[in-house]
Amino acid sequence: MTLNSIVANFQTFKLVDLLDILIIAFLIYQLLGFVNRTRAGQLAKGALIVMAVYLVANILNMRTVTWLLNSLLQVGLLTLVVLFQPEIRRALERMGQTDQWAYRFFNKNRYNDTSLKGAWRSAIIAICDAAERFSETKTGALIVLERNTNLSEIVRTGTPVNSAVNLEVLGTIFYEGTPLHDGAAIIENGRIKAAGCVLPLSNNLDLGKDMGTRHRACLGIAENSDAIAIVVSEETGIISMAKNGVLMRHFDRQTLYTRLVDEMIPKETASEKSAAEGWKARGKRLLNWVNNKEEDEQQ
Ligand SMILES: Nc1ncnc2c1ncn2[C@@H]1O[C@H](COP(=O)(O)OP(=O)(O)OP(=O)(O)O)[C@@H](O)[C@H]1O
């Protein structure tokens, strides 16, 4: 492409071309966000790897691999649509909800949102208090703390709650005999979003025989998302936590608190810290200047 043809292309560039580019950029942004957030995203990443292998095999003229992947890719698109059907349906549904659009644009990393620090801190205190109480009274409980993976599919399986997290509400939810005590409570942005939710069960064969479906559900959600899940055993009162497909056991109130704060409340980065300190120093200097000025005027 010569310089002249590039200049010629720019000369014919119209407003509608800009709109064209913006729409494609928006679609790619949404697609990347979708791949990043949802459980189906893991599958999409796998599909991308298969496509990359196919391209390399094609370039290197590897006939058997190319033939095999060719046959796979022919049905691949249809398979992806079938596999992602619930996600695609929900994504289309959400496109009609303008508040969700704004949310996506301004909240790239929801659990990392520093403005939610306070909400998460009080939620964690309440969760730890409740876990200790449940452990003492041998009350079964399952609590999921949402991070970046969107758990709205799971939330839909339960009953909406939308309440602040406190000991009383958690105690009521998991009180045996209430309709919501079966299933999991989902905490989103430091608030209880829903209760009585059904989680995917883990197939992990290493899970001890003493652990039944509550613990499998706890591990299952941690295998299928980046959420943190806490389970209190009705039989033994043991408090466990699952993260990234690993179940850790024997927490007490303090160790649970330390771990949850570590996982859920983002630490200030050095630049954020220095920026905050910079503003503090500037504020102090301004205050000193005002005080000095007042003293000068009085003299
Ligand atoms: N898929 C699921 N999602 C959420 N909760 C579930 C799911 N499956 C089971 N549960 C919860 O687990 C309870 C059954 O627990 P079960 O005794 O089988 O498990 P457990 O791991 O041995 O727990 P515990 O030690 O508390 O007895 C159900 O009453 C329900 O509340």
UniProtKB/TrEMBL annotation:
Keywords attached to this entry: ATP-binding, Cell membrane, Membrane, Nucleotide-binding, Nucleotidyltransferase, Transferase, Transmembrane, Transmembrane helix
GO biological process: cAMP biosynthetic process
One GO MF term attached to the UniProt entry: ATP binding
Source organism superkingdom: Bacteria
Key word Transit peptide present: no
Record carries keyword Cytoplasm: no
Transmembrane segments: 12-31, 43-61
Similarity annotation: Belongs to the adenylate cyclase family. DacA/CdaA subfamily.
InterPro entries attached to this UniProt entry: C-di-AMP_synthase, CdaA, CdaA_N, DisA, DNA_integrity_DisA_N_sf, DNA_integrity_scan_DisA_N
Reactions the enzyme catalyzes: 2 ATP = 3',3'-c-di-AMP + 2 diphosphate
UniProt-listed Enzyme Commission number(s): 2.7.7.85
Its biological purpose: Catalyzes the condensation of 2 ATP molecules into cyclic di-AMP (c-di-AMP), a second messenger used to regulate differing processes in different bacteria.
Start and end residues of each DAC domain: 85-253
Protein name listed in UniProt: Diadenylate cyclase
Subunit (UniProt): Probably a homodimer.
